[in-house]
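Bug #77: duplicate submission created two jobs. Keeping one. Sequence:
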Amino acid sequence: MEFNILILFLLIIVGVSIKAFNDAAFMERLMFIPYLVKRDKQFYRIGSHMLIHGDSTHLIFNSLALYLLGDVFLNAFTGVYVGVDGGLIEYYGLLMGQVHFGLIFILGGLFAGIIPYLRNHDNPSYRSLGASGAVSAVIFAAILWNPTMEIGFLFIPIGIPAYIFGPLYLLFEFIMDKRGNSGIAHDAHIGGAIFGVLYVLILNIDKGKEFVNLFFGG
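Kept job's structure:
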């Protein structure tokens, strides 16, 4: 059986999250608390919060999003999926394809914490948790990589082309972040999305050109 970094990430996240559901002190130790990162130098919190989730719904939603879009991004082969131009493994091989995927997920999750940290490092009451920023990095990397693939949403019965879905979803995140008081770290989602896009542009600038041409009807 071949190593699959996506499945490894999912197993770790699910396992650690389930433990946290039953151990409030453990969950508190892993949460992202910028105030403690700054005051007590608890730098591990910048990454540890990606391993835990607030409840089962939060965990299931992130896990499904990561698996469904992550699998297409990592493992899809040309000709199997409509609108998909092959996955990272097909382009870069089994090892490097998974290395790139791992870097997008891990570094994307860390990058996603920059805005929340800058906003809240003097706020002792701020707490966040979940892999949403890292998942957002994978989702937007996948969108830029395969802009013509169709993305379905729970309450939308039709598939939406990725090059349309991505900008609309990002606009929604900006609006919700500006509105505030949602209890969701929209700024982390935005940060993750930015990292995912930048990584793909560095990896293959032609993907960005294709996206722009599609979006502007070129």
